[in-house]
Amino acid sequence: MHRLILSLDECTLCGECVHACPLSIFTLEGKIVLVEPHRCNQCLRCVEVCPASCFTFSPAHELIDA
């Protein structure tokens, strides 16, 4: 399982992710993007439509060598 990371420094507030997400995890409020990442199903539609390429996915848990 991976977690969604949004780089707010690169975000242009275009709203493409808001319209593309089938679970409506993004909300634009003025100049702020609100995200509910726990609801993400990792469909990657936000990644595909983002013109600023500000989304990444990283492992949800760090792997430790035993």
TrEMBL record:
InterPro entries: 4Fe4S_Fe-S-bd, 4Fe4S_Fe_S_CS, Fe-S_Ferredoxin
Gene Ontology MF, one: metal ion binding
Domain named 4Fe-4S ferredoxin-type: residues: 2-31, 33-60
Cited Pfam families: Fer4_10
SUPFAM superfamilies, sorted: 4Fe-4S ferredoxins
Key words of the record: 4Fe-4S, Iron, Iron-sulfur, Metal-binding
Coiled coil: none
The name this protein goes by in its record: Ferredoxin
